[in-house]
Amino acid sequence: MKYKNYSNKYIIITGASLGLGKALAKRFALEGCNLILLSLPGEGLANYSRMLANEYGVKILHFETDLCKGENIKEFADWVLNQKVQIAGLVNNAGLGGSALFEQTSISLIDTMLLVNVRALTLLTRYFLPALKAQEHSFILNVSSIAAFKPMPFKMVYPASKAFVYSFSVGLGEELKDTGVHVAVMHPGPMNTSEDNEARIGKHGFMGKGAWLTVDDVADIGVSKMLAGDKVIIPGVYNKVIIRLLKFIPRIFAMPMIYKVLSKEVFSESERQSI
Ligand SMILES: NC(=O)c1ccc[n+]([C@@H]2O[C@H](COP(=O)([O-])OP(=O)(O)OC[C@H]3O[C@@H](n4cnc5c(N)ncnc54)[C@H](OP(=O)(O)O)[C@@H]3O)[C@@H](O)[C@H]2O)c1
């Protein structure tokens, strides 16, 4: 596949006011793409849209809504389709995770994670696919995680939801291979998205820091590789090596290793020694 140029076409990006979504918006603006940005209400998306439009000379539409509700997803899709602009890309970035014991996780957090990570991503893909197919070339870029490749304790439903994103994306990509719609899935490792995240990864010491990338680096790798035609994108050499290794280590050895590393996120040192 040749490096594709989507300048002056509209790209939809969810979760665009924070972290990786914000960096992806900037990276696509740098490519000269017009943007349709979505975030939760009250996250400063209007200001960010104005700043990007001024700095990169692109057109930006923005919409604030909570993707947990099915009616909001439909309202957003109808609003976008009514703009009568050429939609050449959908970036399903919105998603949430964290670390906790499953039994101590609130029902509402489990529900939100499944609704945003799985249902919203799937329904948005379905709503926008006809518009994407109407273009000569277009793409869907779904954001998964390195957590998609092995089951993990202490991560609630997050790894399972990201395994869904991987499976759904690769399957759909195959189904659409004879169309102009390119489907890619990106699997970032830990990124500097929040102080909480930095503190959590800091507990892994050398192991965690080795995998660490900035959101700008991940956005740059993700967009360049997707435009070059890659289907499964794993940013960072360290992350690629870890995933390769985990693939070959049998589950009965891998799971206790993963338990040991991730238990640092939910138990104190003294609690871990008494386990
Ligand atoms: N952080 C990491 O280390 C890491 C590692 C691997 C994969 N990822 C994945 O990368 C993606 C971005 O993560 P991040 O860490 O940059 O995000 P983040 O800073 O934790 O923020 C969560 C993102 O999801 C959006 N979001 C959450 N709940 C939403 C809802 N109910 N409705 C609409 N949007 C909602 C947020 O939108 P707003 O912009 O409105 O706040 C925000 O962009 C996610 O899919 C995440 O799973 C992150």
Automatic annotation (TrEMBL):
Keywords: Oxidoreductase
Alphabetical list of Pfam families matching this protein: adh_short
Official protein name in the record: Short-chain dehydrogenase
SUPFAM superfamilies, A to Z: NAD(P)-binding Rossmann-fold domains (SSF51735)
Entry's Gene Ontology molecular function annotations: oxidoreductase activity
Organism: Anditalea andensis
Similarity remark: Belongs to the short-chain dehydrogenases/reductases (SDR) family.
